[in-house]
Design goal:
Elements: E1 3-14, E2 17-28, E3 32-36, H1 43-51, E4 58-63, E5 66-67, E6 78-81, H2 93-103, H3 110-119, H4 135-147, E7 153-157, H5 165-180, E8 184-188, H6 192-198, E9 201-206, E10 209-214, H7 219-222
Parallel strand pairs: 3-8, 3-9, 6-7, 7-8
Antiparallel strand pairs: 1-2, 1-4, 4-5, 9-10
Helix pairs in contact: 2-3
Bound molecules: adenosine-5'-triphosphate.
């Protein structure tokens, strides 16, 4: 397995609050990693540092050996769902994906946008405006925008938020499929079942430190309930 992403002695503080202190870890390509920790422990800060939305005060983040924390060059290769997805409320789901796709340096065909919506149980032909979407539908559209460009790295902050049981099973299967294609996936979840069903490795964030542990995945948990 090749190393895909490296945190190398990364520190981040906001004013007096030291959120990450000299944090180092690696992600291997084609694996699914979970990150857990109490509210406010620093999970989203880690995701934002990878996505280039925040910069480390100290240390460096490497993707396939290249430093990425002071360049935006990495972003086109990452699919990102952090916090609540922001959509144009008067447009349909498909139209929203088309707008985002048009801003990408690597746009995909419309058929791909329709495909990801269908994979997530959203009707690409529906004219329903996103402002009328339920919480779960918005979340699915957020996952759709994260995966539509075939990312090498998928960063998903609480991807199962608002999803019903069968949708959770659908998303788990989808993520396993991306893993099999070589996508590295880094997700946070407050639900231990998601972690056990999906993750090859688990990070815990506590008091500015990140510790790693291997997750043993019982196959029974991977099967859709
Ligand atoms: N832009 C910012 N300015 C100041 N403080 C920030 C900023 N972003 C995050 N923080 C602080 O950093 C800490 C970690 O926040 P973070 O959002 O990473 O938590 P989290 O682990 O994702 O929590 P949750 O489980 O609630 O989503 C919190 O104390 C938060 O207030």
């Amino acid at each position: 397995m090749a190393t895909f992403l490296t945190f190398d002695h990364v520190s981040k503080r906001f004013g007096q609050e030291s959120v990450l202190q000299d944090v180092s870890f690696t992600l291997e390509q084609g694996q699914i990693y979970g990150i857990v920790g109490r509210n406010g422990s620093g999970k989203t800060v880690i995701f934002k540092l990878i996505a280039g939305l925040l910069r480390p005060d100290k240390g460096e983040i490497f993707c396939q050996g290249q430093p990425i924390s002071r360049t935006n060059a990495f972003l086109p290769w990452a699919g990102i769902l952090i916090e609540s997805p922001c959509f144009l409320p008067h447009y349909s789901g498909l139209k929203n994906l088309q707008v985002l796709n048009s801003l990408s340096p690597h746009p995909v065909p419309k058929a791909r946008l329709q495909e990801v919506m269908t994979q997530l149980g959203l009707d690409p032909k529906s004219r329903k405006a996103v402002r009328s979407y339920s919480l779960g539908m918005k979340q699915k559209l957020g996952i759709a925008q994260a995966i539509m460009h075939h990312p090498s790295l998928l960063i998903l902050d609480e991807p199962m938020n608002g999803l019903d049981e069968s949708s959770v099973a659908q998303v788990r299967t989808l993520l396993q499929g991306y893993k099999e294609k070589g996508t590295t996936i880094f997700l946070s979840s407050h639900n231990p079942e998601d972690i056990h069903a999906l993750c090859d490795g688990l990070f815990t964030v506590k008091a500015g430190q990140v510790t790693v542990q291997k997750v043993v995945t019982p196959m029974a948990d991977v099967v859709a309930p």
